[in-house]
Amino acid sequence: MKFLRRIWKRYSKLGRKRKNKQIWRKPKGRDNKMREKRRGYPTVVSIGYRTNKKQRGKIENLMPIKINNLKDLDKANEKNIVIIGRVGKKKKLEIIKKAKEKSIKIQNVNIKKFLKNNKEKGERK
Known about the structure:
The protein is built from three helices and three strands; from the N terminus they run βαβαβα. The chain is an alpha/beta fold. The chain folds into two domains: 50 residues, no CATH class; 62 residues, no CATH class. The N and C termini lie far apart (45 Å).
């Protein structure tokens, strides 16, 4: 469950069309309906929403590893899910090909779509 501050949809500075600005702030106003946990309003952070200890920090029951180069990919195995960092297209292509060979899942890239699009671009040149 994702908890967001009360009127984040109204202003861009609070996270409208900007995911990194969508952060939690506790509602504190006197007449705030969200603070009163009224029906029809977004949920408020409270006891009972926390995930299990075994599941915490995992994506699809796999531990995430951030990867910036091919050397980092050697650390990953089937028990990990890979998140590719800020890498250029050439390195990203190499990383994806090697991950596909090792049968490692990648979280933030659709492998088939990425390889298909980049094969077409290579043929045009």
